[in-house]
């Protein structure tokens, strides 16, 4: 059994100017003897789009999964919107969070996966309304209006009454993005959202994400293998290598003039 970490070195909450929307502070994640994240420090500012690239197995998806609280971290603290994600303050100390606190923190984060996982028995519109009505308790009429707006934004208004099985992969992914946005997250996570798609429909999904970047002040963290897309869309690109950030820079710099040999090797291999 692992010894509990002393968390007194971590602030109970982040305050002051320029509090990042997401902060990983010395986060370690292990599976048995395999270290997947090694004392990771990563900040994402409000409204920033950060893309994570790197070899398979370097820990990219784990970063997103720990943010979704799908994986427990072994060391360190993750802050979202200034507050610890899985801990809360009690008597001046950080203690494991209650279910209620965790639910509130989770609601700040939306995620889209490679496999869209829409509810198959519901229409596109019902998929978008489900969370707002049943989890957030928003009146149906209001949830419907907002969902219709979001489906319009992702170019799916005319398909709102279709079930997922009648939609193409690209269309399902666009509904999945609208559904995640309907929960009004402060942070959106995208994990390889174009990997399962046919090449000809990838553009319709990347265009939706482009719109989110230009029109919404959302904080976004994206894992992708599409280097061209990462280059176009990101404010910052982080190259992961063995659970650490090997190099991070604005895309023009990271792709145009990588400093690390490992980054250079990776980029020349994926081109
Ligand atoms: P990436 O997204 O960069 O491909 P991941 O974050 O998915 O990498 O995985 C990082 C490492 O963690 C890989 O070596 C993977 O095999 C391992 N891993 C992921 N999930 C588990 C798990 N549930 N149990 C054991 N090992 C895991």
From TrEMBL:
Keyword annotations of the record: Amino-acid transport, ATP-binding, Cell membrane, Membrane, Nucleotide-binding, Transport
A single GO molecular function term of this UniProt record: ATP binding
InterPro entries for the chain: AAA+_ATPase (IPR003593), ABC_ATPase_HisP-typ (IPR030679), ABC_transporter-like_ATP-bd (IPR003439), ABC_transporter-like_CS (IPR017871), Ectoine_EhuA (IPR014343), MetN_ABC_transporter-like (IPR050086), P-loop_NTPase (IPR027417)
Domain ABC transporter intervals: 22-267
GO cellular component: plasma membrane
Pfam families reported for this sequence: ABC_tran (PF00005)
Domain of life of the source: Bacteria
Localization, UniProt: Cell membrane
The family this protein is said to belong to: Belongs to the ABC transporter superfamily.
Annotated protein name in UniProt: Ectoine/hydroxyectoine ABC transporter ATP-binding protein EhuA
């Amino acid at each position: 059994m692992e010894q509990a970490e002393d968390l007194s070195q971590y602030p109970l909450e982040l305050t002051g100017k320029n509090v990042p929307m997401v902060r990983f502070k010395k986060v370690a994640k292990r599976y048995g003897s395999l270290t997947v994240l090694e004392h990771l420090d990563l900040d994402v500012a409000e409204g920033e789009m950060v893309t994570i690239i790197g070899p398979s197995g370097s820990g990219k998806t784990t970063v997103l999964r720990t943010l979704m609280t799908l994986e427990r971290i072994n060391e360190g603290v993750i802050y979202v919107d200034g507050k610890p994600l899985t801990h809360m303050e009690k008597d001046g100390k950080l203690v494991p969070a209650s279910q209620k606190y965790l639910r509130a923190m989770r609601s700040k984060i939306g995620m889209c996966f490679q496999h869209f996982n829409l509810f198959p028995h519901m229409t596109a519109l019902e998929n978008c309304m489900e969370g707002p009505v049943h989890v957030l308790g928003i009146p149906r009429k209001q949830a419907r209006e907002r969902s219709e707006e979001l489906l319009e934004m992702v170019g799916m208004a005319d398909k709102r009454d279709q079930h997922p099985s009648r939609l193409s992969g690209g269309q399902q992914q666009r509904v999945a993005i609208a559904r995640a946005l309907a929960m009004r997250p402060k942070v959106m996570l995208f994990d390889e959202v174009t990997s399962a798609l046919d090449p000809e429909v990838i553009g319709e999904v990347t265009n939706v994400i482009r719109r989110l970047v230009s029109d919404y002040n959302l904080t976004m963290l994206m894992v992708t293998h599409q280097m061209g897309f990462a280059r176009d869309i990101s404010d910052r690109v982080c190259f992961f290598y063995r659970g650490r950030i090997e190099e991070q820079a604005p895309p023009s710099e990271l792709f145009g003039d990588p400093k690390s040999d490992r980054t250079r090797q990776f980029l020349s291999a994926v081109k």
